[in-house]
Sequence to fold (195 residues):
Amino acid sequence: MFTGIVEKMGEIREIRISDGREFKVAVDFAKELELGDSVSIDGVCHTVTGKSADLFTFFSAKETLEITNLSEKEVGDFVNLERSLQLGDRLDGHFVYGHVDMTTRVTDIEKGEESHLYTFALTDNLQKYIVPKGSVAVNGTSLTVYEKGDDYFKIMIIPHTFLNTNFKYFIKGTQVNLEFDYIGKYIENFVKAQT
Fold:
């Protein structure tokens, strides 16, 4: 489980393609990781399978690649990283599980003097999970929905988030991972079970 507060950006240094893909990512906390630790990579929970002083390795299965943006990643790309939540940690974002619901694409970026407004496409069947002023994880980043329309939603990115996540590399068409707030999904499941 994660909080959606990105710790660091990591740079993809190597990708080995097999049945899935094995990634090597450079980040300064790699030396602190243990084999088997969970790390959120752009909002996708993965297991650390190898490490060195400044790199760690994870394997992404074919099924994961099919439903996340990791299939589009290339050497040199930056990914948002967060180590798993520990008991006693502060919860500054919201509960993020690392289970991506869908991918979508950036359709517009309005750059302000400080903050930037990002627009994302939203399909009809998942629109119900986006709530104005509610939480959503985009590439593993806990964010507040700024505006919602019939086929889109908008997120306002403050300067700190812009500088410390891979949002600063987004352009129109960039694919991102979305995880919707689990509270709404649990309520929906409970109500369906009662009918």
Q: What stands out?
A: The helical segments are 62-67, 159-164, 182-194. The chain has three helices and twelve strands.
